[in-house]
Amino acid sequence: MIYKVFRHGAKSYEIIEWIFDTLFPKRNDLIILDLTYGRGRFYRLVRNRIKTLIGVDIARHDWEVEPDVFYNMTCEKFVKNVIENKIKLEKLDIIVVDPPWSFEKRRSIKDYVFYSKLPYHMNISSMPIIYFSMKLSKHLSTPLLYRYKEHLSCKHIIKADAVVNLFRHIGKVYYGVCSNL
After folding, report:
1. In what order do the strands lie in the sheet with 30-34?
2. CATH number given to 11-150
3. In this structure, what are the phi and psi dihedrals at residue 68, rounded to the nearest 5 degrees?
4. Smallest Cα–Cα separation from 97: which of 78, 123, 116, 114?
5. Which H or E element spans position 140?
6. Which of 5, 56, 78, 106 maximizes the CB count within 10 A of its CB?
7. Residues in a beta bridge with 158
8. β-bridge mates for residue 172, sequence order
């Protein structure tokens, strides 16, 4: 397992670039599935290395990095459709998940609404998203790259901790790549 700590100021797309460089050195033909696509910021520095970028999200956002294919649905519905062969995927290199867990770190819905963006102005539990991501990773025998409030219980290939500003306080965000879920 490879482990690294990113000091204060590291951006998610810089950490993703390090993970891709570590996991896929010299590869420019990656096929990525992101189950919580959002605006696509993760891929800012690595888009030129990706052959096919598949995004899934409950809303279409103003993209910074546009996916090649986009599914406008929940993670749960997408995973069920893949498992039931209603959606066919080519062989993936990695599955990515970055659930909207920020509500779980806040003290009140008022704080959450003030800082967050639509469509996440609600109490969304990240656990079902994590569960379905892990289920799909296992079903497809594909590594899972996550960004979350804690490290997942899995066999890690890569672990990274990032010291960042979290809601006006210094905190940590955790990244990892799991295999053999």
Report:
1. 2-6, 155-166, 169-179, 144-148, 94-97, 30-34, 50-57, 69-72
2. 3.40.50.150
3. -75, -35
4. 78
5. helix 127-140
6. 56
7. 2, 177
8. 163
Per-residue CA distances from 70 to 77, 106, 163, 178 (Å): 14, 30, 31, 24
Residues 88-122: tens digit of each pLDDT? 999 999 999 999 865 544 444 444 444 444 455 45
Q: Which residue carries 């891929």 as its tokens?
A: 43
Per residue in 65-86, pLDDT (tens digit) is 999 999 999 999 999 999 999 9
Q: What are the domain boundaries of the chain?
A: 11-150
Query: In the beta sheet, which residues pair with residue 3?
Result: 159
- What is the C-alpha separation between 94 and 145, in angstroms, rounded? 7
